[in-house]
Amino acid sequence: MFYCHLCKKHMWDANSFENHIKGRTHLMMREGIEESYRLKANMIRQEAKIAEQLKSIELDRLKRMGKTKQRQLEYCTMCDLNFHGHISAHRKSEGHLSLKKFLHPKCIECNKEFATRIDYDTHLLSADHLQKAAEKNTKVGERKRNTLTIHTEEEESKDLRPPQKKRKKPAAKKAEGETTEVKKEGEEGA
Fold first, then answer.
1. What pLDDT score does 36 carry?
2. Which of 134, 103, 136 is nearest to 120 (CA)?
3. Looking at residue 64, what is its pLDDT?
4. What's residue 43's pLDDT?
5. So what's the pLDDT on residue 35?
6. Phi/psi class of residue 85: alpha, beta or left (left: φ > 0; alpha: ψ in -120 to 50)?
7. What is the 3-state secondary structure (H, E, C) of 56-80?
8. Long-range contact list for 37-46, CB < 8 A, 24+ apart?
9. How far apart are CA 123 and CA 110, in angstroms?
């Protein structure tokens, strides 16, 4: 249970774990991870902006053709995005929901939501969370990792086509002047 998922280090007892959490190397690692979270959030925002720009181009094209009228722009502070449409529809969009899930994670064991991802990481290393995780027999940070589902051979192969027998190629028609010797040499080389 004494595992720091940020530094990927195992500790042998509570004192060593606490000393690690207060230590300089852990704090430096935390700052680096916090910066990577900022970059990831900005990347998600940029993807949403690109998608919205594509939608805006399509709406402009339809407007020029007279098939639609101009819609008012709305703004989402979390996504830092001006968008066409209603705010309630935007909040249900895949881009907004993925950004919200990334920025404001939830601890399943403790049933708590967090304002920032780094607060969530700090919570995962807290004594309260470690006790609840131990009671529920879950590993620290298990919810953060995407788990790879390993299937049996039968499950993996159920969607595959059965192997097909190799077909023989039809013999090529003999051209005028072609001898049978040349034909045999060509077959042996193939």
1. 93
2. 103
3. 84
4. 93
5. 94
6. left
7. HHHHHHHHHCCCCCCCCEEEECCCC
8. 37/117, 37/118, 40/102, 41/99, 41/102, 41/103, 44/95, 44/98, 44/99, 44/102, 45/79, 45/80, 45/81, 45/99
9. 10
Q: How many CB atoms lie within 10 A of CB 49?
A: 16
User: In whole angstroms, how far apart are CA 94 and each of 55, 78, 89, 113?
Assistant: 15, 14, 10, 20
| Residue labelled with tokens 């919570």 | 123
Under a CB-based contact definition with an 8 Å cutoff, are residues 82 and 73 in contact? yes
Count CB neighbours of 70 within 10 A. Answer: 9
The span from the CA of 74 to the CA of 83, in Å, is 5
The burial class, CB within 10 Å (0-12 / 13-18 / 19+), for 88 is: exposed
Residue count (the chain): 190
- Residues (pLDDT < 70) of the chain are 70, 138-190
Q: Using CA atoms, how far apart are residues 84 and 94, in angstroms rounded to an integer?
A: 15
Residue 59: per-residue pLDDT: 86
Q: Which amino acid is at 110?
A: C
Give the Cα separation of 123 and 148 in Å (integer). Answer: 25
At 159 the pLDDT is 57
In 2-159, alpha helices (H)? 14-22, 24-64, 87-91, 94-103, 117-124, 127-135, 153-157
Determine how many CB atoms are found less than 10 A away from the CB of residue 4: 22
